[in-house]
Amino acid sequence: TLRCPGSGLRSPVKKARRLAIRWEEGQSSDRIKWKFLEHKGPLFAPEYEPLPEHVKFYYDGKPFKLSLEAEEVATFFGKMLDHEYTDKEVFRSNFFGDWREEMTP
Question: In angstroms, rounded to a whole number, what is the distance separating the alpha carbons of residues 70 and 3?
């Protein structure tokens, strides 16, 4: 295999050729790539596991008990903080609008 000098990485041209060959694999003479599609059903996320009792949500400096559903949504947002979506105003606006609905009894 070719490598870019000094980088230890494979040549981008070689990588592009490998990808092109991979997409050409399995084509029949009539240019149909697949004859069937097999679906194994939906994949559901595991049940939410509540945070331990000593983990608190604070609002205005005071501990606030969230419903299980609201806690799950808040935990989702917390896990997304490292993702670029949370920097987008539309995502934040949509998220907090939905979360408000979840927090309102």
Answer: 51
